[in-house]
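Changelog note: in this version the structure field was regenerated for every chain. One regenerated record is shown below for reference.
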Amino acid sequence: MIRKRIIVSGQVQGVGFRPFVYRLAHELKLVGWVKNSNLGVEIEVQGTVANVDAFRRNLYLKLPPLAKILKLRVEDRPVRPDLDFKIVLSEQANSHQVLISPDIATCSDCLRDLFDSGNRRYLYSFTNCTNCGPRYTITKSIPYDRKHTSMACFKMCAKCEQEYNDPLDRRFHAQPNCCPECGPKVWLTDSNGKQLGFEIQAIAKSVDLLLAGKILAIKGLGGFHLACAAWENDVVLRLRARKNRPNKSLAVMVPDLEIARQIALISEQEEKLLLSPARPIVILARKTDRLSFYLAPDTLTIGLVLPYTPLQHILFKFLREKTEFPVLVMTSGNASAEPICLGNREALNRLGNIADFFLLHDRDILIRCDDSVLAWNQSLNLPLFLRRARGYVPTPVPLSQKGPVVLGVGAHLKNTICLSKEDQAFVSQYIGTLSNLETYDFFEQTIEHFQKILAVKPEAICCDLHPDYLSTKFAQEQNLPLIKLQHHLAHLYAVLAENEINEPVLGWALDGTGLGLDNTIWGGELFWLDPVALKHKRIASFEPLPLPGGEQAIWEPWRIGVAILLSLQEDLNYPWPLNVPSAKQVKVIQTMLEQAINTPLCSSLGRIFDAVASLLGLITKVSYEGQAAILLEKIQAPTKVEPYLWKTEEKDGVFWIKTKFWFEQIITDLKKNVSPAVISRKFHLSVQRVLVELGLSQALKYGVKKLAFSGGVMQNLTLAAGLPKEISQKGLLPVFHHKMPPNDSSIAFGQVVYAQRFLLRSNS
């Protein structure tokens, strides 16, 4: 007989881990106990050597669906005269090593309860167990007990209490446990808050309204959705107009894979993503004309998500009974540029001019959390995150070493924040662009919330170099040691850390804009970077383009197109595809260029994409970030073509990729009436070739074997698929994001990685 003490840390509380341990111990005829503590879950097991060893193996092999073991510590203990195995009361402590689970889609067991007419939870919208349901968005602080969640105000009935206290029940210590007798309720109102129905009647009436062409605001897990019929052009256009979202794609929700396959091409890996407990929106190749064209006018893809809450499942049950094509727009419940709505009063106030009706409930959402958005990178056989939020947050990213607690406050666009705790980095859900008071409040709330649920206080703070970012200003106002990190270096520290790379590499940081170390605008940079020694060198960059009007040129790419034609001394009276608002405005641009008035130079690859799109006449003004590049990618010809030639010029130790040389070739093609589709394809191949070939030549020079990529340009699905193949063929190892988005949502993570290492080196 032997006795072992086992300390398990990770995502092991509130996920059915203790009852799993209890059942496993009984199966193996072991005695002892299990309890929650500030360390995670503590276990003492006693029995034969073979059975104790089998117990340790099965802790990993038979884990509950939501449990994640990060560390397992085993110690010998003296044998004791225990007679059985029991679950003992939890310890309370100020600090903890416990992870709160993300919000998880309704499990198959709860779905059976939901649609079993003999079950007491039949068609009940808040059915959950330890294997599914809300976690992060209903938790205000640790430990994860009911009294610290938004379920505290709902007293369990006798039957729910019995389930909650039974170690063999799958609802044992499920903090959101409830039923129709004791739990939250659903009701329907009009936009003035007038009640129109309760519970099942409210959901059934909501379906009738959706089929009648109405727009509904529906309260979900991490905030509100705006929903409407996805096949009706009129209602989709009405939603776009009210939401002030004229072009950006809208996601759709379908009840199951059968309907999903009618809409999109779905690979085996994409199917697994769709069905995963996180239930993200997955970007798929669109294949039907039954959907409204106006859902995604700029792309050939569709963002598709399956139901993940009981309420959504019930909604689609009624919808299927009334239509053979049950597909709903399910987009974030907000006006453009604002954060997703959280509470009932807030939604009625902020969405009253968008939604016709509101499907509400009284379980409070304590923290906003949008849907996650992913694509599948077939070349890498890994996910490509476009937005990381519900289903994944607050799961940490492991760090290579323990260090001080650091707060990274991120960038201006696609902001997230990040807090480190020992050897883990906790990156927040997507917050958004810090351009209005509502989003900035969300930013501050998220920082406060993360400190509560992680039970930490930052010892230092890291921000971007840009002095006008609100995140930078926030960092400067805190009474903490301040560390600043250049934007594109933060991108590269992020991609290397998530791939656990601790050796010198070459890395491309490719995006729209970021303040460079020389106070110019960067966005197309190749660095040599040593992430351990914290050393870097800028090796190559794209030849800067002029941005007439500064930031205005980002939203009006025609300005960049005109600047290119003028710089190449082309005749502006030639019938270029480029759409120019007026001759007067062209004259203004010409004056700005000649006198260098508000015309900063920018080495950004993102702006080069904008310029090509404008020259091809695809767009004059953009309504959302990246729109020009998305349109350019959409029109590519599928035919095999040769890329444009490229060349560099070395100056001050930096290789400058001659951007004008590309545009000279594009303009020659335009004069020859080569189609925009062929030009787009040639351009994409040219970008891919220069990134690989220049990267390879410098990798040989610097003696590195890995080529890393980060930045918003890596959301381009053509490059994300093509680059890894070509890099591998050249004998280098491609390094890409697969745990974090490549866009600015990874900046806070990179800041924390750098700052933690900086502090460790400073204190050593």
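Spot check on this record: Residues 544 and 603 are 4 Å apart (CA to CA). The chain has five domains: 2-87, 108-164, 186-361, 396-486+744-764, 541-735.
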